[in-house]
Design goal:
- The mean pLDDT is about 95.
- α1 packs across α8.
- This protein is about 45% helix and about 15% strand.
- The protein has a single domain, classed as NAD(P)-binding Rossmann-like Domain (Rossmann fold), CATH 3.40.50.
- A 7-stranded parallel sheet has the order 3-2-1-4-5-6-7, with helices on both faces.
- It is built from 8 helices and 7 strands.
- The chain is globular.
């Protein structure tokens, strides 16, 4: 059977581990060529090795999404290697471990917003001309912190609210030119970034995670399944939407 992304080229940021790696693996399994972007060059190479072992075509790019020059080099490298980009997944992100305003430094604020929101802007801007060439798809990773409080601290929650606004405006600006943009809003997911929280975090936070209707946290592959839907033609009439995938957390 032909994969749902057969013949397409995808760029996935933060693909060295966690949700990003799961998305890269899912896309590759559906026939996509994947350009793996991550701040950690070793992690990016590890994902590429895993994809190559499964017969997929892939390449690694070490990139700091919060740095315009770094993003520009990665975009040039990806386009030179694969000739085009059909799918962009803006997944790279950092967490602030529930820090409130008084515990958040200016440096921490700048770092969180720099990666989670500015980085999304820089990456999208660098690849949008290529996406417009063939009519592409953008999938942005927000969070339930994009619609409710309590899933992160002040900087993280602000950044993830911003991702939803960014996604909606991107869809409004470029949908008529053939580029779809949508966001995924995960709840608690077991990744290298969140594992310390899930294992030894604040008791109230852990109780919330365990009390959701699903009674568990998600695995990265479950988030990747939603990203696949939004990246594929199966979601061809979906523009500017935000999909919560949280085990029922926000239903409480």
């Amino acid at each position: 059977m032909v994969g749902r992304l057969e013949g397409s080229v995808a760029v996935v940021t933060g693909a060295g581990s966690g949700i990003g790696r799961a998305i890269a693996e899912r896309f590759a399994a559906e026939g996509a060529t994947v350009s793996v972007w991550d701040l950690d060059e070793k992690d990016a190479a590890g994902t590429v090795d895993a994809l190559t072992e499964r017969g997929a075509k892939s390449a690694a790019c070490a990139v700091d999404v919060a740095d315009g020059a770094s993003v520009g080099r990665a975009a040039e490298r990806s386009l030179a290697a694969f000739g085009r980009v059909d799918i962009l997944v803006n997944n790279a992100g950092v967490f602030d471990y529930y820090a409130p305003v008084l515990d958040t430094s200016e440096e921490q604020w700048d770092r969180i917003l720099g990666v989670n929101l500015k980085g999304m802007f820089l990456v999208t801007k660098s690849l949008l001309p290529a996406l417009l060439d063939g009519g592409g798809t953008v999938v942005n990773t927000s969070s339930i912190s994009g619609v409710v409080a309590g899933g992160g601290g002040i900087a993280y929650t602000s950044s993830k609210h911003g991702v939803i606004g960014f996604t909606r405006q991107l869809a409004a600006d470029y949908g008529k030119q053939g580029v779809r943009a949508n966001a995924i809003l995960p709840g608690a997911v077991e990744t290298p970034m969140t594992r310390p929280i899930l294992e030894q975090g604040d008791a109230a936070i852990l109780e919330t995670v365990r009390s959701v209707p699903a009674q568990r946290h998600a695995q990265p592959a479950e988030i990747a399944n939603l990203a696949l839907f939004l990246a594929s033609d199966e979601s061809s009439f979906v523009h500017g939407s935000s999909y919560v995938i949280d085990g029922g957390w926000t239903a409480l």
